[in-house]
Specification:
CATH superfamily: RutC-like
Distance between the termini: 36 Å
Largest sheet: 5 strands, mixed
Number of helices: 3
Oligomer: single chain
Order of helices and strands: EHEHEEEH
CATH architecture: 2-Layer Sandwich
Structural class: alpha/beta
Radius of gyration: 14 Å
């Protein structure tokens, strides 16, 4: 079975543990729902956070969702001048038979500007 990458990103309102965990949980839940992902099929997840987010690890959001058996890694996003601030990005590696062009990448709120060519609005945001 192939392993596919699912990308996504979200911005937080503050460098606060609750804001970081809540944003991460919202992003992961949207990725899971949009791709019908089962936790046992997730190989691993890499999170990045911009340097202005250091109050909590984004992986804590996944752990609070019960993802205790999935390997998680948090790293700092490159600090590029003019880049989006207070942003959490994710690369979820998923064992699936879906083709790459069937994967739904999820970019929420301000983070949509990162990859408008890849991002598809989640159904709950399309209705608003």
């Amino acid at each position: 079975m192939p392993c596919r990458g699912v990308r996504g990103a979200v911005c937080t309102d503050a460098n606060d543990p609750h804001a970081i965990v809540d944003a991460t949980r919202t992003l992961l839940q949207s990725i899971v729902e949009n791709n019908s992902i089962q936790r046992e099929d997730v190989a691993s997840i890499v999170f990045t956070a911009t340097r202005d987010l250091d109050a909590a690890y984004p992986a804590l959001g996944a752990r609070k969702m019960g993802w205790t058996d999935v390997p998680l890694l948090c790293v700092q996003e490159m600090a590029v001048e003019g880049s989006l601030s207070q942003c959490i990005r994710v690369l979820l590696l998923w064992n699936t038979e879906l083709a790459q062009d069937q994967i739904r990448h999820v970019y929420l709120g301000e983070a949509r500007q990162l990859r408008p060519d890849l991002a598809q609005s989640p159904p709950e945001e399309e209705e608003k």
